[in-house]
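[09:14] KT: can someone run the structure on this one? pasting the chain below
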Amino acid sequence: MAETLGSLIDKISIMESKIYHMEIEIGRHGVSKKHIDLCKNGLAVLIQQRDDLIEEINSMVKVIKKGDMPFKVYRQFKMYNDPKYQRDID
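[09:31] RB: done, structure tokens below
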């Protein structure tokens, strides 16, 4: 699996925001039926994509729980913000 659990959760949070705003767009007054129908179709696609991501997370968690995929922690090194990585200037 190329994705990490964190990246999948990040994608779901973005997808939820898109779903929220698409639902608002569907409820707008003064827009054409064509626009509403377009948004409803888009909403259906977004929901399917979100559900696919949820399924991928569920599958990943099952594999991790079985021990077939070790959970790996990636450390961040931000040299610009950490004094120990600052260069000594002579």
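[09:33] KT: thanks! The two ends are 47 Å apart (CA to CA).
[09:34] RB: yep, looked fine to me
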